[in-house]
Amino acid sequence: MLKLLTIKNYALIEEVEVAFESGLNIITGETGAGKSILIDALSLVLGERASAEVVRKGAEKAIVEATFGASGNKRVKSILESNDIDLMEDLILRREVSVKGQSRCFVNDTPVTLAVLQSIGDLLVDLHGQHEHQSLLRTETHTDLVDDYGGLEGLRAEYRTSYDTLTQLFAELEELQARERQLKEKRDLYEFQIREIDEIAPQAGEEEALEAELKILENSEKLFEATSQLHQMLYEGEQAVYDQLVKARNQLEDLAEIDASFTEMKTECASAVAIVGEIAKFIQSYNSKIEFNPERLEEIRERLGRLVMLKKKYGGSIDAILEHRAKIGREFALAENFEREITKLHERIEAERKTCSAAAQRLSTKRRELVGKINKAVVSELAKLGIANARFDVRIENRPLGKENGRGDAAFVKLGREFYEAGPKGIDVIEFHLSTNLGEDPKPLAKVASGGEVSRVMLALKTILAKTERLPLLIFDEIDVGVSGRIAHAVGKSMKSLSQYHQVIAITHLPQIAGLADTHFVVEKIEKEKRTLTRLRKLDLEERVEEVAKLMSGAEITDAGLEGARELMGIAIQNEKVKMKK
Q: Strand order of the sheet with strand 125-128?
């Protein structure tokens, strides 16, 4: 429900803050006092288009802020979460329009786009009047209303689950078929690449090993000469290091016999003899294994050249070549098995299509069973509201796509041999039709209802759908145009009944409706510092009586008028007295 509406520097409003209550909130006021300005301001914060003209003269910007109690609204919560907006106990919508025409939107103090603000507003308010928030004039809501009336949420959910599964399966099929087409175009290329890579057959780590071997073979003569010389120097030469170390060790042994302080040096020298001996042995072994193999050298150079060619074509490294080979191998294998994979997917689609079709048919059957009840109920309510010759018709249409092997191959629903258009809500296209004149055939609701009549049609529909309609706030902007007397009282009673299930805000000029208010506000135009202002004021009990009397008899209030107002408000006054006692 709407808890608080704050308006600053909007048109004739300098600043207004009004706390609305649950139940039936009535707004009255003289013609031109600014009642429509309030509705326009509320429309602005719900996402209507903005204009710099709404900014009060002398102000920098107009601000409209609406605080809603919407903590239990799951659809609103979903929008908040998807837009990273903080969840709070109250939902605060704010719209600012600058004198330059720039508009800013906020939800819980988080900047949002106008589209987000509109989507939230559409879930909170149904505004009936010359405005856009008229949900029942939008045909896309008709299916929801029929389902809500019949309590078909379970069937809808069952169908939607299957529909979503089919959506995913068709997406997989489309992707697979697209890949098949792409692979058919690339098959020859992949086949060539696989053959080219497999012919060379690169191995992980191979390049490094070949380069190391190549380096040794290219330097085999140098390695042979160097190791030969080194072996001579260390072991075989006349003054070989090994022999010299042996002599030194022997002398140190003699010295150690004389002076024990040479013992450690004797041991170190013995170790040096052993180390040089091992080095000489390794060098001799290495020297004996050196190959002079021009054929192997050329073979390595050729192999490395082929690997370089592959690297240039397939990613710059052996690992990249192997990864590419694995990828195109999988793709090529898939291309070989596409027919089998697509056949399997078609089988899954056919099985799920049967499930979806059965659910769609059950849902459609239940909806058609509701049509007669809804039609009669709406006509009955319209009669109470002064439209005696109304004809109301909930029309349900199914749109065939074609028979098997025709346009319907990719359809979600198939009944018999016929395929049907289907959407997230089923196969039914539902639209409300209305005729308010005797002898005229019903036509689409949006085309035939206008002015005060449209609001009474809305009121009738809201009355029969009151317990299930999901919008928490209903606003009626002078729906009583063209009605009076008994019909006006009927309109008021209907709105009063609606207020048991919704918060209702109504602008009216009829005492029969105003007298039923749970909360009554009056819009007044005043002068302040030589400027005209509009203000909204909540009335107490006696002020309510006076306002209703004024609506009944005009500006001059008489005792008879007050008595008539009290009589008209009898039930409301009793309720107010009970509240006052409490």
A: 125-128, 473-477, 503-507, 24-29, 519-528, 531-538
Note whether 484 and 513 are within 8 A (CB): no
CA–CA gap between residue 67 and residue 36 (Å, rounded): 20
Give the whole-angstrom CA distance, residue 28 versus residue 511: 9
Please tell me the distance from the alpha carbon of residue 516 to that of residue 500, in angstroms, as a whole number: 13
Mean pLDDT across 214-228? 86
Answer whether 384's CB lies under 8 Å from 168's CB: no
Q: Where are the beta strands (DSSP E) in 399-499?
A: 400-403, 413-415, 418-420, 428-435, 443-444, 473-477
If phi over 0 gives left and psi between -120 and 50 gives alpha, with beta otherwise, what is residue 246?
alpha
Contact 146, 430 (CB under 8 A): yes
Q: Where are the domains of the chain?
A: 1-136+466-539, 541-582
Q: Scanning the structure block, which residue is given the tokens 């509109």? A: 118
**Is residue 385 a contact partner of residue 487, using CB atoms and an 8 Å limit?**
yes
Burial class (CB in 10 A: 0-12, 13-18, 19+), 180: middle
Spatial CB neighbours of 582, under 8 Å, sequence gap ≥ 6: none
For residues 287-309, give the mean pLDDT.
87
Pairing of strands 91-98, 61-68: antiparallel
Q: What is the DSSP letter of 426?
A: B
**C-alpha separations of 516 from 17, 160, 452, 524, 575 in Å:** 23, 43, 20, 21, 10
Taken in order 502, 508, 513, 516, the sign of the CA dihedral is positive
Alpha helices in 16-101 (DSSP H): 35-45, 74-82
Q: What's the whole-model pTM score? A: 0.61
| Cα gap 107→94, rounded to integer Å | 6
Which pair of structure tokens corresponds to residue 40? 């326009």
Topology (CATH) of 1-136+466-539: Rossmann fold (3.40.50)
| Contact assessment for residue 27 and residue 505, using Cβ atoms and an 8 Å cutoff | yes
227-269 pLDDT tens trace: 889 988 998 888 899 989 999 999 999 999 999 999 999 999 9
**Beta pairing, strands 110-112 & 13-19:** unpaired
Instruction: Give the N- to C-terminal CA distance of the chain in Å, as an integer.
Output: 24
- Alpha carbon of 71 to those of 88, 124, 501: distances in Å? 8, 12, 17
The residue among 452 and 232 whose pLDDT is bigger is 232
pLDDT at 405: 46
Q: How many CB atoms lie within 10 A of CB 483?
A: 22
Q: What is d(CA 325, CA 314) in angstroms, rounded to the nearest whole number?
A: 9
Burial of residue 414 (CB within 10 Å: 0-12, 13-18, 19+) is: buried
Ramachandran bin of 470, using left for φ above 0, alpha for ψ from -120 to 50, beta for the remaining angles: alpha
